[in-house]
Write a structure and sequence with these properties.
Keywords: Transport. It comes from Halobellus salinus. This is ABC transporter domain-containing protein. GO terms for molecular function: ATP binding; ATP hydrolysis activity. Belongs to the ABC transporter superfamily. The structure is a single chain. The protein has 197 residues and is of the alpha/beta class. It has 2 domains: 134 residues, P-loop containing nucleotide triphosphate hydrolases (Rossmann fold), CATH 3.40.50; 49 residues, no CATH class. The chain has 7 helices and 7 strands, in the order E-E-E-H-H-H-E-H-E-H-E-E-H-H. Strands 3-4-5 form a 3-stranded parallel beta sheet, with helices on one face. Strands 1-2 form a two-stranded antiparallel ribbon. Strands 6-7 form a two-stranded antiparallel sheet. Strand 4, helix 4 and strand 5 form a beta-alpha-beta unit. Helix 2 runs antiparallel to helix 3. It is globular. The two termini are 33 Å apart.
Amino acid sequence: MIGLRRPDSGSVTLFGDPAHESRHSGRIGFVPQDVATTNGEMPITVREAVRMGRYPHKLASRFTRADRDAVDTALQRVEIGDLADRRIGRLSGGQRQRAFMARALASKADLLALDEPTVGVDAESREAFYDLLHDLNREGITIVLIEHDIGVVTTHASEIACLNRELFFHGDPETFVETDALADAYGGSQSLVHHHH
């Protein structure tokens, strides 16, 4: 969907062009799965990891003042500026997840793609993370979240696409919980209980 692979059939467009065209790489920030539990041995600091988000913008090998400002702003945005010089392997799962989110933000992306970003993250850090995503979305950044926790999806998403090799549902969370899309996609007798608050 974000251009890492070509579709087997049909087409996917990003920003009006085929998604696989590399010219959009600087407009997409990606937070991979399991960042809270992996990369513990990376011999780099948090600042160096976040600086990697600037690579799509580099024409020369040196980092500019604008790059440093983007990194510092991203670190402050996710509230880990005080950890900038710490080795990434010394962070807690929630802190490491925030560092990789800062890397995505440093890219100045228009779209953030997150693959189960809160796996291995404690409940308090998870809620703070989703609050940050809501804020970023309100600021005009598109958030694409790959998530298997239906509670998270129905609570935090404004639109849901339920996929399992094909599209079973696309629409709002309220409609999703009233359909059989989950059972159709994954088999069995899946059911959701949705509490309206």
